[in-house]
Amino acid sequence: MAKKAKNSHADPDFIISFVASPEKGDRRSRRTDMLLQESLVDLLQKKNLRDITVSELTDYADLSRTTFYLHYDNIDQLYNQLEENLYRQFVKILSVSTDNSHPIQHVVATADGKPTIPIIASVCRTIEGNPLLAATIINNPNGQLLQRIYTAGYDSLIENVLDVYPDIAKYKIDYYYAFIVHGIVGMIETWLLRNQEEDVEEIIELLTDYTLMHLQYFVE
User: Fold this and answer.
1) What letter would DSSP give residue 50?
2) Considering the domain 83-219 in this protein, what is its CATH number?
3) For 15-39, what is the mean pLDDT?
């Protein structure tokens, strides 16, 4: 069953625009492109990406199939553009809410003294603040958005861990990062499948504890 968007009181600092205005083409072409993007986002709230056909999309957008193929080769190509736009905005939000030197294992204290990892907190709050994003992630099982967000911090993690623990073999850090990234992505996807029943702050705390618990491997 397709995931439906959940209502949310969004923090304006974590709002994402799903549709990006194309950089090329005349005004009419750009308007058509944005209509295709908007129509795909709407359909993704109702069904999985793999079940959406070009005919269904063009009927929904009130465009011809010929018009669609002037812009894209297939639905996947359109979705990939949509995902690229979401990824760029995610990275922008993360760059504002976390320092560039903060990798996935960087920890700060909250107002009540609890440890938290800024990059994890920002990702979770962005998802919570954008109900359409949650539905879009779940309704495209083959999407790589979450994976791309977390793997973007790989180089930073390697550099920071080796600075602190210079004697650790790099391959062990590779295994740690793969374990943590897949675990975090899986937990967030489970949270979304549960219709975000748990409060976002509880999820951030769980993910932080999960990450820090396994980071202890390096100090043993």
Assistant:
1) G
2) 1.10.357
3) 75
